[in-house]
């Protein structure tokens, strides 16, 4: 199947019904972000760590091997990135510009430095959980919720560790009692 026909068939399935107003959807772990032009997977929802409304992007800790960081660096004088040094991110398959990688940044965007920043307008997001394909502009990352989930995960891990320790102690006691009987 050619790239052009694959793109149009997938793009035709982008869900638009029920998209009333500027409603946004939170990124979940079970989603993949694909190049809008050729549908190559660029990043996974589990690597999302930030969304920025001013720059209209989603930042990721890691991206797929199909994302290329452009060789040259740029110095920007536009209002949003004034004083920043960055390289463009390109889709490795169709070479479309899909984002940027900040090397040096002013205070307002310094939290995005060394993250893979993907432009929302450059991606489609497929949710493996709901099996829906949606436009990247509809998604955001909720850092507070992520921190809460990490806290819950930490508690769950501690609880599991405690149960394993209890089981190990029971096994140890049973081994000792069976040795004493011999």
From TrEMBL:
Keywords: Cell cycle, Cell division, Centromere, Chromosome, Metal-binding, Mitosis, Nucleus, Zinc. GO terms for biological process: cell division; CENP-A containing chromatin assembly; chromosome segregation. The keyword Transmembrane does not apply. PROSITE patterns: MIS18. Pfam families: Yippee-Mis18 (PF03226). InterPro entries: Mis18 (IPR034752), Yippee/Mis18/Cereblon (IPR004910). The keyword Nucleus applies. It is found in: Chromosome, Centromere; Nucleus. Its main location: nucleus. Signal peptide: none annotated. GO terms for molecular function: metal ion binding. Required for recruitment of CENPA to centromeres and normal chromosome segregation during mitosis. This is Mis18 domain-containing protein.
């Amino acid at each position: 199947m050619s790239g052009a026909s694959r793109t149009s068939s997938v793009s035709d399935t982008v869900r638009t019904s029920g998209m009333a107003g500027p409603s946004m959807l939170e990124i979940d772990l079970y989603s993949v972000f694909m190049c809008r032009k050729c549908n190559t997977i660029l990043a996974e929802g589990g690597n999302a760590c930030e969304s920025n409304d001013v720059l209209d992007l989603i930042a990721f800790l890691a991206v797929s091997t199909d994302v290329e960081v452009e060789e040259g660096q740029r110095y920007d004088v536009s209002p949003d990135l004034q004083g920043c040094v960055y390289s463009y991110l390109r889709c490795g398959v169709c070479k479309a510009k899909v984002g940027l990688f900040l090397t040096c940044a002013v205070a307002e965007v310094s939290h995005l430095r060394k993250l893979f920043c993907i432009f929302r307008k450059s991606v489609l997001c497929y949710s493996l959980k709901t099996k829906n394909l949606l436009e990247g502009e509809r998604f955001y990352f909720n850092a507070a919720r992520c921190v809460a989930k990490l806290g819950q995960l930490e508690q769950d891990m501690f609880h599991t560790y405690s149960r394993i320790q209890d089981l190990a102690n029971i096994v140890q006691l049973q081994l000792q009692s069976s040795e004493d009987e011999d």
